[in-house]
Amino acid sequence: xxxxxxxxxxxxxxxxxxxxxxxxxxxxxxxxxxxxxxxxxxxxxxxxxxxxxxxxxxxxxxxxxxxxxxxxxxxxxxxxxxxxxxxxxxxxxxxxxxxxxxxxxxxxxxxxxxxxxxxxxxxxxxxxxxxxxxxxxxxxxxxxxxxxxxxxxxxxxxxxxxxxxxxxxxxx
Length: 172
Fold this sequence. Notes:
Strand content: 35-45%
Shape: globular
Order of helices and strands: EEHEEEEH
Low-confidence stretches: none
CATH class: Alpha Beta
Number of domains: 1
Distance between the termini: 19 Å
Helix content: 10-25%
Number of strands: 6
Structural class: alpha+beta
CATH topology: Thiol Ester Dehydrase, Chain A
CATH superfamily: Hotdog Thioesterase
């Protein structure tokens, strides 16, 4: 995976819950496209909602993959529900909390919350700005008969580095 939308895992309860954070900075190229200054408006850099959903998908996907020691190839199968009520911008931190609601040999379902900490108003603390429910498939257990490459779709080198730097144990 080329883009990481989580910076650190801060809690992992195997087969149950994972909490990760993403710090938003002006160094991120995509912020300059959402939304640039015009002749009449100043720039309003925000993290696109689609990338917040992807951050939740990465958090939940690692949780689902970790459940079976990353033996399964885990892919996002469906965004069942997604609501994001507020923009997130530079100098803010997003906290993703993903919980497994169902898991079996075919896949898993997760529910998640997205919270925001505005460091300019840090005494308020984190506040919930969204919720995302996702479904994942273990593609090795599909019925199509198609065989997929041996590498794990979710758990690549970037995620190994993320887990290592977060102090999370995983099969090596």
